[in-house]
Write a structure and sequence with these properties.
Length: 212
């Protein structure tokens, strides 16, 4: 069965550069980003892991843990981390799962045989505090991910959860947002959006970001 937005993120126990990880326990009560790398000692992945480590404080601020997976052994990962730290100028700040048996890659359908039948594509799974998958983003091996975009999606999801709003195209934190169309009760609207809103169309109601 394929994984979709709304599926419970499959649990697993797997070795990592920070010891054995039992995924659901490791996530605890926070959010997580599980993201795959096609292979160790590859250039794009090296830059991605450096960038994600540099942005770790931003993920921490949102109560989101980072976990990478690559279909090589933990021993290989440890040697690769030396290169990442040397070339990217940052300490590896989160665990990398070993996956030589492709257990996690298979569980999360990270191998796309038409692209490559042994290496993973660049999958990103955003998982919330209920272990529910909230977003799935997939890139080809040749395209490094934009971790600022991943933070932006997390901001949007967390804002939807707390304030009943959706975010428009190209939105970034602090900009106006959209009141979800299902919210219609005038009293509730007044209480939830004390700064008011602009009704461009009955289905398009713009309001300042409520938590700013
Ligand atoms: C890379 O990380 O640089 C890479 C990995 C697999 C295929 C192409 C690029």
């Amino acid at each position: 069965m394929g994984l979709h937005i709304g599926s419970i993120a499959p649990d697993f126990t797997q070795d990592s550069t920070a010891g054995t990880i039992q995924f659901h326990d490791w996530l605890g009560s926070g959010w997580g980003v599980l993201f795959s790398h096609p292979k160790d000692f590859t250039p794009v992945c090296t830059t991605e892991l450096g960038r994600a480590s540099k942005l770790k404080p931003e993920f921490d601020r949102r109560n989101v843990k980072l976990l990478a997976v690559s279909v090589d052994s933990v021993a290989d990962h440890q040697r690769w981390i030396g290169d990442i730290e040397e070339t990217q100028g940052v300490q590896q700040a989160f665990p990398i799962l070993g996956d030589p048996d492709r257990k996690v890659a298979s569980l999360y359908d990270m191998i796309h045989p038409e692209a490559n039948d042994t290496l993973t594509v660049r999958s990103v799974f955003l998982i919330d505090h209920n272990k529910k998958i909230r977003a799935i983003i997939t890139y080809p091996a040749s395209t490094g991910r934009n971790f600022t975009e991943i933070l932006r999606v997390i901001d949007s999801l967390q804002l939807t959860d707390t304030h009943s709003v959706a975010t428009p195209a190209d939105w970034t934190d602090g900009q106006d947002v959209i009141i979800v169309p299902s919210l219609k009760d005038p009293e509730v609207l007044k209480q939830k959006f004390p700064k008011g809103y602009t009704e461009v169309k009955p289905y398009l109601r713009i309001t300042p970001q409520p938590n700013k």
